[in-house]
Design goal:
With about 130 residues, the protein is α+β, with helices and mostly antiparallel strands. The chain contains 4 helices and 5 strands; from the N terminus they run E-E-E-H-H-H-E-E-H. Strands 1, 2, 3, 4 and 5 form a 5-stranded antiparallel beta sheet that branches.
């Protein structure tokens, strides 16, 4: 299978924006050649509570749950936007409790496998 270019960003929870400390909780990946836009989220509740005891995890998780929905184009006012526009809307800089890293690019054969690899490397490192 030939390699194709992709772009991705790491999804972060930033409990106190002024401190610029964060925990990686997911990845969003876009691959135009495969018409692929997807996000995976994994919240380690114990780790987040140790990091920010006053954090409203239920609220944060509800916000995080909207990211895959936006990627799928299955609801809300962003659903009718083209896939690349939804990706760029997601990765636009914000000063909120949920932020995405700068966009990175790479080459892969399978965007779905690359998304899983990035989750392992960036969210669940051993």
């Amino acid at each position: 299978m030939p390699t194709v270019s992709f772009e991705y960003a790491i999804i972060r929870v930033v409990p106190r924006v002024e401190r610029q400390e964060f925990i990686n909780v997911g990845v969003v990946l876009s691959c135009r050649a495969h018409r692929f836009l997807s996000a995976e989220i994994s919240c380690d509740r114990a780790r987040l509570m140790a990091f920010a005891p006053s954090l409203d995890l239920d609220l944060v998780e509800s916000y995080l749950a909207t990211i895959p929905t936006i990627c799928e184009g299955s609801g809300g006012p962003l659903a009718p936007l083209p896939q690349q526009e939804r990706f760029h809307w997601l990765v636009a800089p914000r000063s909120t409790i949920i932020q995405l890293s700068p966009v990175h690019s790479g080459l892969c054969e399978s965007p779905r496998q690359e998304l899983a690899r990035l989750m392992t490397q960036m969210v669940h490192p051993r």
